[in-house]
Structures are given as structure tokens and as C-alpha cells.
Design brief:
The protein is mainly α and about 110 residues long. The protein contains four helices and no strands.
Length: about 110
């Protein structure tokens, strides 16, 4: 297995741009990377930009802040939904108790059309 040095984000972006002009095959051969590596970089760059090409999952401080804010917002949404569900369950319990008639422990079945 051939091992090479890891490319920086800037190098990866430069290789992708070079491939647009020279072609993928020529660029892959020139830089000694595999087809799989090139197409993985290309897919990541297309979906998330240059930040998604960072090595070892390292993210920038601004990206970390953005993710922390998004996480806090999502946690708040989940808490609100849980509260809504709890309130709905309580209302359902209260309304179902009010609608019942005392039948002396026997269940009431209605049959036929109304």
C-alpha cells in the first residue's frame, strides 16, 4: 500500500479546481491520489464546501460555534415538543374521564347506526 502525506484543505480545493480544467484522470495521476480519494473529495466539496474537506474531522472555531447554536436551538425545540405532548396527554386524560359515565364497572357497547 502506498502511503503519502495528507493534503491540506487548500491543497484539496486546488486539486479539485485543477481537475476542472485538466480533467480528473490527468490531475489524479499528477498528484498521485486514487480515484476513490478524488471522488470522495469532490462529493464532500459539492455537499459542504471547503470546510467539509478538513482532515480528521477538525472543524473551525466558527463552525463549532454555529453547531453549538444549532444544537441549543434543536434542544429547545425538543423541549417544547415534549411539553406540548405532555399537555396534550393531560388534556386527553381529563376529557376522557369527563366523557365516561358510571356504568357500575360494566363496559357500554353501542351497536347499530345512529
Amino acid at each position: 500500500m502506498i502511503t503519502g502525506k495528507r493534503k491540506t484543505t487548500e491543497e484539496k480545493v486546488a486539486i479539485l479546481k485543477e481537475a476542472e480544467t485538466l480533467g480528473a484522470v490527468e490531475t489524479i495521476r499528477k498528484h498521485g491520489i486514487s480515484y476513490q480519494t478524488y471522488y470522495t473529495w469532490k462529493a464532500k466539496h459539492a455537499s459542504g464546501g471547503a470546510n467539509s474537506l478538513q482532515t480528521n474531522g477538525i472543524i473551525s472555531a466558527t463552525e463549532l460555534k454555529r453547531l453549538q447554536k444549532e444544537n441549543a436551538r434543536l434542544k429547545e425545540l425538543v423541549a417544547e415538543k415534549e411539553l406540548h405532548i405532555k399537555i396534550q396527554n393531560e388534556l386527553f386524560k381529563k376529557s376522557s374521564h369527563k366523557g365516561r359515565k358510571n356504568t357500575g364497572g360494566q363496559s357500554v357497547h353501542y351497536s347499530g347506526l345512529y
